[in-house]
């Protein structure tokens, strides 16, 4: 049975390792019959959550502060699985994808269910301290 898979990328660097990993995953998932959608969080305008608790209260939009998160919320509403594909910066995710994750709060406040039942994390990173030591 095919799935509707949403790939959420978080790297602000185009054509970097995260993009290569996301593309490889998308290609493999599509080849076996899944429907794959991609949302590039770092190249969208998404504000941080303001915790106003007005989620889904205006025009049935996830966030009343109309930014690109509302586009993502629509994609999430039609996805069976979500794949986070992101680099690690200082042992955590880049701020662009963190803003998106914080706004997932809207589904709880708005009492909205999403069909997503599966989740995956694909991540890359480098330890600059080791890299510096090895190249010195």
Strand and helix map with partners:
Layout (H helix, E strand, L loop, with lengths): L3 E6 L7 H15 L3 E6 L28 H8 L4 E7 L7 H9 L1 H5 L8 E7 L3 H8 L1
Parallel strand pairs: 1-2, 1-3, 3-4
Characterize this entry briefly.
With 136 residues, this protein is of the alpha/beta class. Helices cover 33% and strands 19% of the residues.
How would you sum up this structure, described in words?
The chain is α/β, with parallel strands linked by helices and 136 residues long. The protein is built from 5 helices and 4 strands, in the order βαβαβααβα. 33% of the residues lie in helices and 19% in strands. It is globular and about 40 Å long.
Tags for this entry?
136 residues, 33% helix, alpha/beta, globular, 5 helices
The assigned structural class equals alpha/beta
Topology pattern, helix = H, strand = E: EHEHEHHEH
Mean pLDDT: 90
| Gap between N and C termini | 52 Å
Number of strands: 4
């Amino acid at each position: 049975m095919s799935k509707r898979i949403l790939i959420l990328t978080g790297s602000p660097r185009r054509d970097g390792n995260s993009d290569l990993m996301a593309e490889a995953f998308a290609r493999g998932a599509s080849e076996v019959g899944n429907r794959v959608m991609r949302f590039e969080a770092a190249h969208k305008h998404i504000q941080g959550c303001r915790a106003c608790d007005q989620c889904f209260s205006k025009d049935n939009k996830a966030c009343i502060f109309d930014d690109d998160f509302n586009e993502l919320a629509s994609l999430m509403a039609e996805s069976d699985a979500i794949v986070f594909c992101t680099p690690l910066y200082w042992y955590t995710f880049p701020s662009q994808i963190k803003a998106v994750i914080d706004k997932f709060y809207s589904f709880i406040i708005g009492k909205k269910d999403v069909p997503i039942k599966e989740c995956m994390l694909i991540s890359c990173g480098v330890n600059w301290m080791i890299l510096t030591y090895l190249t010195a």
